[in-house]
Write a structure and sequence with these properties.
By secondary structure, the protein is mainly α. Helix content is 53%, strand content 5%. It is elongated, with a radius of gyration of 24 Å.
Length: 298
C-alpha cells in the first residue's frame, strides 16, 4: 500500500478516535513525513532506525518538546500499522527516550507577588491591575486571559460567588473560581472604560486586529510594572504568574488533581512539575537554615 494512503488512513483514525484540532493533525502528519523521509520511506523500520532518528533530531538542535511530540506520533503511527496488520512488530514498543531534564519553570515568591500586586495601590492602571489579579487568582493561560469576554464572568445565584467560564485548548470548557478582590478590581476597571470600548464583548478590548489586547502588549506592560515594583524584568512574564498561582496553591495544601483542573491540563504529568518546584524551594530553605538540616526531601 502506498505511503500517502497509509498516512491518510492514520489521519482518519485519529480524527475519529481523538478530539484533536486540525493544527495538531497537521503536526502529526508532518512528524510522520519527516521520519519517513529520513528512513527512505521504510515502513518496516526497526528500533535502531527510530533511535538513530531521535539522535538525528538532537544533532539538528530540534526543541525537546518537538522531539517528544514526534516520538509520540511515531508510537501511535506504528501501533496503527500493527493493528492494521501492515507490520508484525511495533519498533516503538520498548523505545527508550533519553532527553535532558526539563528546566523547572520560573516562579515568583509569594512576597514578590504581593510586592507586584501592592504596586497598584498607588498606580491607576486599572486594566493591568485587573488582568494581574485575574491571572494570579485563576491561573489562566495568557491566551485565555486576553480574549476573555465580559459575559464569561458569571455570578452563582445560590452562593453569590463568581466564576469564570473558560474555553481552553481543544475548545474544551472549564470553570475556575475567582476571588472577591479580583471581582472588585474588575468592576472598578469596567467603570472607567473608554466610551469607544463600551460595546465591546471583550473584557480587555483594544484597537488591535483581534479586538482585544495582544499577548505581546500585555507582556510589555507587565515587565514595565515589574521593574517599577522592584522585580527584574527577566524574572517576569504572564506565564510566570500562572506558574506562581499553581505553585503557591500547592504549597498551601491544594491537591494536584484540583490544580490540574484549574489549569486545564489534559494530563496530570504536566501538573506534576509544580511538585518539583515546591521541593526545590524547600531544599533551598533547608540548605540556608541549619535548624532545618535534618529535614529530608525526596
Amino acid at each position: 500500500m502506498k505511503t500517502e494512503l497509509l498516512i491518510e488512513r492514520f489521519e482518519e483514525m485519529i480524527l475519529a478516535d481523538k478530539n484533536l484540532s486540525l493544527k495538531t493533525i497537521e503536526a502529526y502528519k508532518s512528524d510522520i513525513k519527516n521520519f519517513l523521509s529520513y528512513s527512505d520511506y521504510e515502513i518496516n523500520a526497526d528500533k535502531n532506525v527510530i533511535q538513530n532518528y531521535i539522535e538525528f533530531m538532537k544533532e539538528r538542535k530540534i526543541k525537546q518538546t518537538s522531539i517528544m511530540r514526534a516520538v509520540s506520533t511515531l508510537r501511535q503511527f506504528f501501533s496503527f500499522l500493527q493493528a492494521e496488520n501492515i507490520i508484525t512488530d511495533n519498533p516503538t514498543s520498548n523505545l527508550k527516550l533519553k532527553l535532558k531534564n526539563k528546566p523547572l519553570p520560573k516562579v515568583l515568591s509569594e512576597t514578590e507577588m504581593q510586592l507586584l500586586l501592592s504596586y497598584f495601590d498607588s498606580n491607576r492602571n486599572l486594566k493591568l491591575k485587573a488582568m494581574l489579579h485575574i491571572l494570579y487568582g485563576s491561573g489562566l493561560r495568557v491566551s485565555e486571559l486576553i480574549s476573555l469576554n465580559i459575559d464569561s464572568i458569571i455570578q452563582d445565584e445560590e452562593t453569590n460567588r463568581y466564576i469564570i467560564l473558560i474555553r481552553g485548548k481543544g475548545d474544551k470548557e472549564r470553570i475556575v473560581p475567582i476571588n472577591n478582590i479580583a471581582i472588585s478590581v474588575i468592576k472598578e476597571y469596567l467603570s472607567t472604560r473608554l466610551e469607544k470600548f463600551k460595546l465591546s464583548k471583550f473584557l480587555f478590548p483594544s484597537t488591535s486586529k483581534t479586538g482585544h489586547i495582544t499577548r505581546q502588549g500585555f507582556a510589555k506592560l507587565l515587565k514595565e510594572v515589574a521593574v517599577d515594583a522592584g522585580i527584574p524584568k527577566n524574572k517576569i512574564s504572564p506565564h510566570v504568574i500562572r506558574h506562581a498561582f499553581a505553585t503557591h496553591l500547592l504549597s498551601h495544601g491544594a491537591d494536584l488533581l484540583s490544580i490540574q483542573k484549574l489549569l486545564g491540563h489534559k494530563d496530570i504529568s504536566t501538573t506534576q512539575i509544580y511538585t518539583h518546584v515546591s521541593n526545590e524551594k524547600i531544599k533551598d530553605l533547608v540548605s540556608n537554615n541549619p535548624n532545618l538540616s535534618k529535614l529530608k526531601i525526596k
